[in-house]
Amino acid sequence: MSLTAANLSEVVKKQYFFKLKANIDAFSALVGIQLLAILFSMGGANSFQSYSGQIDIRVGYFSADVVIAFSMIWALVTGITITTRPYRNQDFTFVTNRLSSNLANILFLFSASIIGGVTAMLARSLPLAIRYMFFDVPNYILPMTTLEFLLGTGAAVLYLFCISAIGYFIGSLVQISKLFVVIIPALLIGMLFLNFLVGTEPYLVYVYQFYIMESSIGLFIFKMAITTALFFIASIGILNRMEVRR
Asked: What is the pTM of this model?
């Protein structure tokens, strides 16, 4: 039996559901890293302190930013991990080729990004709830509308999916040569060091401004979609060159 005799969509579907079950540890890791992020954000994502006579005012702002940032690390690691040999060997339980395997991986990463984005936004009020129950500290919550929650969740999902695509690309390079384990960090650190020597702003500042500071929702979605697609296309091209297990 060959892949041509099987429907590609059916093969991808079976692989996708298999990956959801086989990679359940990734979601356990997500819960752990988000709980860790909540602990880090207990003091507030941003805070300031002011003195006025006998009055000491301390204000802390709580948001989902810290949880989303930690979830991005998880998405990057998950994207890299899913390209490793033990995970790739799982695909040969099915009649498969590189295309169906990559499509199933992308669907899995997208599903993981949705779960990560939703849980990160839902965790926004958890530090406040903990402080309310265990600490005698007044809390003031700004209500979030349904639209704001949906927009925030959508943005978080896109961020996580894009970061997972970057991880998938890095993992693909490492599968070609283990030297990329050294080359990629050295390249990133070298660029930061070069920016310092030249006296220019770090390249990460421009990345931050290009993606995170975008005010137009439509343009933001376009940027994230194109960037994510390019990384996945490049990864598929790299992995397709690797020998298929017979």
From this structure: 0.83
